[in-house]
Amino acid sequence: MYQTLKLSDGYPGAEGRQRALYIADEFDRARGRDTAYHASHALHSLNDHVSKAQLTICVQSAEEIARSIEAATAHVLSLFTDRLERARAALALNKAEVIARRWSQDRESGDTAVGRNDLRQVLWLRNCCHNLSLLDDIEEFHSMRSRDARIGRQTERLFRLPRD
């Protein structure tokens, strides 16, 4: 789904559109494998581009991001077993939709205490997803090492020479 647009595509907002497509694509990927990883990347990119970049996006791009967030919501919420954390994550995803829509509006209108608090909530969820992704990597590493050790022992038994 991710479409690459070059800055030389010759229309205003090409770079913002490219970044918006990337964010929407990461949320779409969060509906499959590695939910925490892709959600973390999508939320990080959204937070980063909205809070630091001077890029704006069109309303259509903002709506694409919002639709992707909505479609990924159930998958992201499934990462949380604690009811309160799940509720906080749902609120943060809602704020991410608000932020995406605000990104398509006047830059001055988004710089409020409420807007900054919305960004903090999204950052909280991004950090949770990032930590869950790290835990997945750690568990995968240990299961691979365990598998490799098992295979090594089995191979050793197969090729043991009988004693004379």
UniProtKB/TrEMBL annotation:
Name of the molecule in the record: Uncharacterized protein
